[in-house]
Amino acid sequence: MASGAFSCPSQVSTANDAVVLIPVVAQQVMIERCSGTVIGDIGFHGPPDDTGTIEVGYSVIPSRRRRGYATEAAKALVGWARSQPSVHVIVAGCDPNNVSSVRTLERVGFRRTGEANGETRWRYGGTSGRPG
């Protein structure tokens, strides 16, 4: 793991080893301000790897989609990640047929980098150095 703000264990075993807990770093619940309703979540798939790469993911409940919430939340989370010294690259993945997610990533500033494991892969900002 890269040095910096992220210092959680990579995994924790429970007392009887029946369950392994994998930490979710900076997972956030999206709450619609006007109603107080939980409408989704957003976060990272884990801490930055040894190269400083971190992956963002998000989900919005069906009744609250197409209102700009994912874009707003992703912009905020990417902004926070860009300020972290241990983060050098921000990536994402989505189903190539999920037009809303594709548009969200484009609005936030991600660029398509290819296909892997049935997903379209994305990278935020420039192609080298600090994100953006």
Summarize the structure.
By secondary structure, this protein is of the alpha+beta class.
Task: Write up what this structure looks like.
This protein is of the alpha+beta class and 132 residues long. The protein has one domain: Aminopeptidase. It is built from two helices and eight strands, in the order E-E-E-E-E-H-E-H-E-E. The strands form two sheets. The protein has a six-stranded mixed β-sheet with strand order 3-4-5-6-8-7, with helices on one face. Strands 1-2 form a two-stranded antiparallel ribbon. The longest helix is centred in the middle third of the chain and has 14 residues, at 69-82. The protein is globular, with a radius of gyration of 16 Å. Residues 5-24 have low confidence and may be disordered.
Question: What are the main properties of this structure?
Answer:
two-stranded antiparallel ribbon, alpha+beta, Aminopeptidase, 2 helices, 32% strand
CATH hierarchy, class:
Alpha Beta
Inertia-based shape: globular
Main structural class: alpha+beta
Topology order in helix (H) and strand (E) letters: EEEEEHEHEE
Termini separation comes to 22 Å
Strand order of the largest sheet: 3-4-5-6-8-7
- Output the number of helix runs: 2
The appropriate CATH architecture is 3-Layer(aba) Sandwich
CATH superfamily: Gcn5-related N-acetyltransferase (GNAT)
Tally the beta strands. 8
User: What does the largest sheet look like?
Assistant: 6 strands, mixed
Report strand %: 25-35%
Give the total of domains.
Answer: 1
Assembly level: single chain
Mean pLDDT: 80
**Which fold name is given in CATH as the topology?**
Aminopeptidase
What are the segments in which pLDDT stays under 50 over at least 5 consecutive residues? 5-24
Helix content: 10-25%
